[in-house]
Amino acid sequence: MDLNNPGTTLLFVLLSILLVVWFLKSKQPHKGRLPPGPPAFPILGNLFQMDIKEPHKSLIKLSEQYGPIFTVWFGRCPAVVLCGFETITEALVERGHDFSGRYLLPVFKRMSNGYGFVFSNGERWKQIRRFTLSTMRNFGMGKKGIEERIQEEAQFLITAIRNKKETPFSPKFLLNCAASNIICSIVFGDRFDYEDKKLLTLLELIAGNSRDLSSPWVQVYNNFPKIMDFLPGTYKKLFQNGANMRTFVKEMIQSHKESFQKDFPTDYIDSFLIKMDEEKHKPNSEFIDGNLLLTVTNLIMAGTESIGVTLLRAIQVLVKFPQIQEKINQEIDEVIGSCRRPTIEDRAKMPYTDAVIHEIQRYVDISPIGLPHMVTTDIEFRGYLIPEGTCVVPVFSSVLKSPSQWETPESFNPNHFLDENGHFKKNESFMPFSAGKRICPGESLARMELFLFLTTLFQNFLFNPVINHKKIDISPIRSAITSMSRDYEFCAISR
Ligand code: HEM
Question: What per-residue confidence (pLDDT) applies to 15?
Answer without folding.
Answer: 46
